[in-house]
Amino acid sequence: MSNDLKPFLARLATGDKLTEADAQAAFDVIMSGEATPAQIGALLMAMRVRGETVPEITGAVKAMRARMTAIEAPDGAIDVCGTGGDGAGTLNVSSAATFVVAACGVPVAKHGNRALSSRTGGADVLTALGVNVDAPMDRLASILGSAGCVFLFAPRHHPSMRHAAGPRVELATRTIFNLLGPLANPARVRRQLTGVFAPEWTRPMAETLQALGHEAAWVVHGMGLDELTVAGENHVSALANGVVHDFTITPEDAGLPRAPIAAIKGGDAAHNAAALIAMLEGTPSAYRDTVLLNAAAALIVAGKAINLRDGVAQAAGAIASGAALNALETLRRASAP
Question: Of 236, 277, 285, 295, which Cα lies nearest the Cα of 259?
């Protein structure tokens, strides 16, 4: 095993912070399989206890991106995803918003995984809906082109992450890896709506996307959720024109009624899939309103909507016309074995 992590560990033990280049080098050691489990655990916890910095997150993402299996995506493609880890067990919002946004003409390269801290992750609900999340890698770009959306199953695109899997399970607490997934989209999208599990992470994540050269992003947190909520106030750090600015939004800003988070409580994959179909069929609900709010934000990031109300109107139209449901059905057919 390599000793290359030892200098970084010695510095972190004193409370020192790593530069972007140092962090990239350290995480390259981890992702190459050259670090011991003890070294990985020590590095992750030293950064967690002190608090990860934007240069450290940026360097780690660059190491992760360098080793990922990427796909081609059209200009203007967007990702709609969250960090997970909010523990709320809600219905699948970003997966549902994917079909609505795609139906509005924005290509969506949806990065996601199976359930880790929730009951039903994106891969779980899409599988229940008949989408093949294990479609051959060489078909993913064409699926995105024909269906307007595609699911990029994280473990398939980031095999080097397996080297940190053991220490992460044994630590059983949040680490920097919880932040990295949404920042390493395999389609190399430059526009993102990204949810985070705690409000203090909206700005650092937006600043990381800024450092990575992204064109536009909203990093959001809604009352304990890693997505926008109609339950009350939402924190947003938005990247636009090279500048990050912070603000809050409410459902009223989008012309939507409030509803408690309990109104979008989820269940197993079959339960969540049925709710998603009902929503795409136009059934009024707090779930539909939550999806509309998140889709509206994504349309702003994509440059297709001028404000939340405009985005909600476009998203509602995509559902009412059947275009959003058709996007799901098209993806199901395009991804079939």
Answer: 285
Q: Is 263 exposed, middle or buried (0-12, 13-18, 19+ CB in 10 A)?
A: middle
Instruction: Return the domain boundaries, the chain.
Output: 6-67, 78-157+168-335
Mean pLDDT, to the nearest integer, of 48-71?
97
What phi and psi values does residue 304 have, to the nearest 5 degrees?
Answer: -100, -15
CATH class of 78-157+168-335: alpha beta
Q: Do the domains spanning 6-67 and 78-157+168-335 agree at the CATH topology level?
A: no
Q: What is the pLDDT of residues 286-311, one digit of tens each?
A: 999 999 999 999 999 999 999 999 99
Of the candidates 290, 289, 313, 272, the one whose C-alpha atom is nearest the C-alpha of residue 222 is: 290
- pLDDT higher than 90, residue 122: no
- The Cα-based distances of 287 to 260, 284, 329 in angstroms read 10, 8, 20
Q: Is 325 left (phi over 0), alpha (psi -120 to 50) or beta?
A: alpha
pTM for the model stands at 0.95
The four Cα atoms 53, 109, 230, 242 give a dihedral, to 10 degrees, of 50
Token pair 């050259």 is found at 34
DSSP codes joined into one string, 48-66: HHH---HHHHHHHHHHHHH
